[in-house]
Amino acid sequence: xANNFEAPFVFGVRVEGDTFTDxxxxxERLKANFTYGVNTILISSRRMGKTSLVYKVCSLVExxxxxxxxxxxx
Length: 74
Prior knowledge:
This protein is mainly alpha-helical. It has helices at residues 24-35, 50-61. The longest helix has 12 residues, at 24-35.
């Protein structure tokens, strides 16, 4: 019997737009850290959305005054 269950989240790739989950608190905290120059390290299990979160926040704060450098230390 086929399983017609569709997972509510996308795994294994960076997501954006409608596929990005509702992470308002994390987005605001990281946005504030970027804006005020707070060094930040995200630690979590694999495939929990760290990359997607960082890319979303980068798109929100990057400007002439704030330059973003991304390092994937995997």
